[in-house]
Amino acid sequence: MTAKTAPKVTLWEFFQQLGKTFMLPVALLSFCGIMLGIGSFS
């Protein structure tokens, strides 16, 4: 049982880290896009 659940935990941690890695650039890009949109409107 422990041999089966251990890879799942590490895989979950891997996906969490992957999500964090992808979240920052995506949030930064969306933020830049919003700032560009506000800048073009005003």
TrEMBL record:
> Which keywords, in A-to-Z order, does the entry hold?
Membrane, Transmembrane, Transmembrane helix
Entry superkingdom: Bacteria
TM region positions: 21-41
Q: What protein does this entry describe?
A: PTS system maltose and glucose-specific transporter subunit IICB
Q: Which organism is it from?
A: Escherichia coli
The record's gene field reads malX_2
